[in-house]
Recover the amino acids of this structure.
């Protein structure tokens, strides 16, 4: 078993160190180059990659260039362990590099190298904030080497998306990359199915032809950050794109409402023609021009022009053909069809093809958005479509076997640059939640009174707010970071490492966030992290703890638990949970010796999740086999 596991981890360190030394030889020479010549060297490398020289051969020089650009433009020279990490990532491994070791900087190495062929390199991370942050941080480095960087976040308009994908390197989230893949698929299908004509004419009278073309390009190389979260925990999340491209329920509703509002602007013959059999409206060039000039809400940015044209055409049709109190009535905020034969209300019946919704929008009642799945893919299947896949995270080794089975990627454990100095204070276990929260408040007060910043991780928005109320009552100043308070995410994280800062956060601050303690704070012992509960997976706990003691800095953390914590119920079932709860009920006694119980519960949950994933993997494989036999695309569900 151990031998098998080892085979899935990899340790080509001897060979890799030799390569890293080769890179060192370039350093002296590159340091002397002026900026312009450094860039020239980089572009020469690109030329060689384009002429077919294998990337493996270019790696030493490429990595040395990136290292020099890091030193020069970011004030950070890649450590040797980061060079090793870069080699692992270029070789398609999942690199386990501890939290705070500088994976953001490390990523620049393989991303640069793999973008040289011109087919693009993608970085997939777990949220918009990290995608934007990392692209911004690394931009000066890529700039210096003559490469372009793009960012795709969930609110990025379509034309900008296309541009971002055309850049040499694109930073985005796993989800957005997957969604764009699906949207492109749908578009291509529509082109194939005869709407190509529409698209051709569109290209000639449309000043944003971006709408009629796929945005994403080739799936060449992808580096997945927070790889365990994305490739394991989220792997089975299906991404679903509705037949209305553009996406979410809110944006679709916005489109319906806006279209209903603007119908009055359009005049027959000037802006549109009326077609008979079937009755339809078609905007002409003038009409499309007018439409593009109208102010529209931001949510519409997510749609292609062609969808907006169609929607407005539908809205005009509805405004001409469907009359209130003749064809339908409005009853309790719903549109009810009047049956034209019986004259009675046909409750529950709906017009199809978006007509019903267009009427709802026009009558200002809630729009019953039908997202009708058109295409669907899991993140796992999506990432398997890339020619080359690599990943990095602080917590991979415990999932090495699973990662290998699904993605054929090996885990490379990269040593830390400096020995870690993070200190663990003894776990505290309380009989009930109330007692636990009270002593958490006291513990925060203690650390705060000496000036140390404290980061408190909670398992849900509710709990973050519960604690916030308790802190306010106790007169402890603090900031809250949860999905309800995201606007200041940058600012909150930016301050979280300063003297006397108390930050209460959900998992939002769990992965990837880089809290930088000031030098005063480091002298006091660095950031202190409080875990208020254990999570379903130890990896998530380790990620939270990893916000302190980064880069070999001092830092400490402590775990607070109670016999009422959810994890005991999830791990041991309701019966045993009840018994435990009874023991703890109402007592102020401590149960610190029970701490190992929580780890046992966690292990049980982890095992159950693992089993469930294994089962699904098996089902997946069977499904794919059948699809291949039927000549279907085995990685794409229900497209069509
Ligand atoms: N070579 C370097 N020289 C100086 N500072 C560095 C270097 N590499 C990384 N750092 C600093 O280390 C800190 C942590 O980096 P980063 O956030 O990339 O870590 P990480 O490995 O991604 O952590 P996490 O697992 O939490 O996401 C950052 O503040 C970064 O500026
Ligand atoms: Mg990171």
């Amino acid at each position: 078993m151990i031998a098998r596991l080892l085979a899935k981890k990899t340790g080509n360190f001897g060979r890799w160190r030799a390569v890293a030394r080769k890179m060192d030889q370039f350093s002296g020479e590159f340091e002397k180059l002026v900026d312009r010549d450094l860039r020239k060297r980089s572009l020469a490398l690109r030329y060689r990659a384009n002429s077919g020289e294998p990337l493996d051969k270019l790696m030493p020089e490429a990595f040395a260039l990136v290292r020099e650009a890091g030193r020069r433009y970011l004030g950070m020279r890649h450590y040797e362990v980061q060079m090793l990490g870069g080699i692992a990532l270029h070789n398609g491994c999942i690199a386990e590099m501890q939290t705070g070791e500088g994976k953001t900087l490390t990523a620049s190495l393989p991303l640069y190298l793999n973008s040289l062929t011109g087919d693009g390199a993608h970085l997939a991370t777990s949220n918009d904030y990290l995608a934007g942050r990392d692209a911004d941080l690394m931009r000066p480095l890529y700039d210096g080497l003559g490469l372009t960087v793009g960012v795709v976040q969930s609110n990025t308009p379509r034309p900008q998306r296309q541009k971002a994908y055309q850049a040499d390197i694109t930073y985005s989230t796993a989800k957005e990359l997957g969604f764009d893949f699906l949207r492109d698929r749908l578009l291509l299908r529509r082109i194939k199915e005869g709407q190509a004509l529409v698209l051709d004419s569109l290209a000639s009278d449309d000043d944003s032809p971006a709408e009629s073309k796929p945005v994403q390009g080739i799936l060449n190389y992808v580096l997945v950050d927070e790889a365990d979260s994305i490739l394991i925990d989220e792997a089975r999340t299906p991404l679903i794109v509705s037949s209305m491209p553009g996406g979410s329920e809110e944006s679709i509703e916005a489109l319906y409402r806006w279209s209903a509002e603007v119908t009055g602007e359009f005049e027959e013959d000037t802006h549109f023609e009326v077609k008979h059999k079937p009755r339809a409206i078609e905007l002409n060039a003038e009409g499309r021009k007018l439409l593009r000039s109208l102010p529209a809400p931001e949510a519409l940015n997510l749609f292609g022009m062609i969808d907006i044209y169609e929607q407005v055409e539908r809205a005009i049709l509805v405004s001409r053909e469907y009359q209130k109190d003749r064809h339908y009535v409005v009853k309790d905020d719903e549109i009810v069809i009047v049956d034209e034969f019986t004259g009675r209300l046909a409750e529950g019946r709906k017009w199809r093809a978006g007509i019903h919704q267009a009427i709802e929008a026009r009558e200002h009642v809630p729009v019953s958005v039908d997202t009708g799945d058109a295409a669907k893919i899991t993140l796992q299947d999506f990432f398997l479509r890339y020619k080359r896949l690599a990943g990095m995270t602080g917590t991979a080794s415990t999932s090495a076997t699973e990662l290998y089975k699904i993605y054929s990627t090996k885990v490379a454990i990269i040593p830390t640059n400096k020995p870690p100095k993070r200190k663990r204070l003894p776990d505290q276990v309380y009989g009930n939640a109330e007692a636990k929260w009270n002593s958490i408040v006291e513990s925060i007060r203690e650390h705060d009174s000496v000036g140390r910043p404290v980061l408190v991780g909670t398992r849900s928005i509710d709990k973050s707010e519960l604690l916030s109320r308790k802190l306010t009552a106790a007169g402890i100043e603090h900031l809250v970071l949860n999905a309800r308070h995201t606007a200041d995410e940058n600012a909150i994280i930016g301050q979280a490492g300063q003297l006397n800062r108390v930050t209460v956060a959900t998992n939002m601050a769990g992965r990837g966030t880089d809290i930088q303690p000031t030098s005063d704070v480091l002298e006091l012992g660095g950031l202190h992290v409080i875990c208020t509960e254990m999570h379903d997976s130890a990896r998530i706990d380790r990620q939270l703890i990893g916000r302190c003691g980064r880069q070999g800095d001092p830092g400490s953390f402590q775990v607070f638990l109670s016999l009422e914590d959810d994890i005991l119920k999830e791990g041991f079932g309701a019966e045993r949970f009840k018994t435990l709860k009874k023991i703890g009920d109402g007592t102020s006694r401590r149960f610190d010796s029970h701490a190992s119980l929580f780890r046992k519960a966690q292990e049980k949950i982890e095992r159950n999740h693992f089993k469930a994933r294994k089962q699904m993997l098996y089902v997946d494989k069977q499904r794919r086999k059948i699809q291949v036999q039927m000549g279907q695309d085995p990685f794409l569900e229900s497209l069509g």
